[in-house]
Each structure stands twice: as C-alpha cells, then as structure tokens.
Write a structure and sequence with these properties.
Elements (H helix, E strand, L loop, with lengths): L2 H17 L5 E7 L4 H12 L4 E7 L4 E6 L7 H10 L3 E8 L3 H9 L3
Antiparallel strand pairs: 1-3, 1-4, 2-3
This protein binds copper (II) ion.
C-alpha cells in the first residue's frame, strides 16, 4: 500500500464514522390514532420491518417515527402500507436526520 491509497483509506473511514453519527428516521403524520392501543398496534407492525431500529408514536401530535438501523434504508412505501393496513391514514411522510429518541425529545419539548 502506498502513501496515496493509505490516506484515501483514512478519508473513507472518517467519512463512514461521520455518517453513522446521524440517525435517519421516517416521520409520518397519522390520522385516526385515538388511544394507547392504536399506538401499540402501529408500533408492533413497524417494529417488524427489517430496517427498523426503533419506533416512536406520539398520540397527541399524531406522529409516528421509525428510526432506521445503521446503514439501512427504510421503505417509506412499506411503512405507509403498514399504517394504512392497520386502519389509519397517513397525511404526511418525511425523512429526517434524527433518531427516534431525538424526535421524542422534540415532541416532549412542546414544539
Ligand atoms: Cu385505539
């Protein structure tokens, strides 16, 4: 290995470390959830998806957040399908660079 490829490798490793730092989540606004059982049902379904690391449901703010496992991509279509299948409406879906815990903290912060 020469000098050039060694420094390239170092750069690549640094980039990988930086990217694994920020968690990616799919944040959905869902209509129709009224009680803790609704939240539980959705949480259970979404937890079963292969790329799901964590799920957070906020009944009051109608938010369902699914955090992706490191290096994996969440299937927004599958998430939407699961929520609709469970009997609820997805109004909005967005990808955010936050973990489920960070989204939860935001919600509790009263934003
Ligand atoms: Cu319910």
């Amino acid at each position: 290995m020469n000098c050039m490829s060694r420094s390239l490798l170092a750069l690549t490793l640094a980039a990988m470390a930086a990217s694994s730092f920020a968690a990616t989540s799919v944040k959905a606004t869902v209509n129709g959830m009224v009680c803790a059982f609704c939240a539980q049902g959705i949480e259970k379904r979404l937890s079963k998806l292969p790329a799901t690391q964590a799920v957070y449901v906020d009944l009051k703010q109608k938010v369902v957040a699914v955090e992706a496992k490191d290096g994996q991509t969440l299937d927004a279509k599958a998430i939407t399908a699961e929520i609709i299948d469970a009997g609820y409406d997805v109004i909005k879906l967005e990808t955010v660079q936050q973990s489920a815990a960070e989204i939860k903290a935001d919600m509790k912060g009263g934003k």
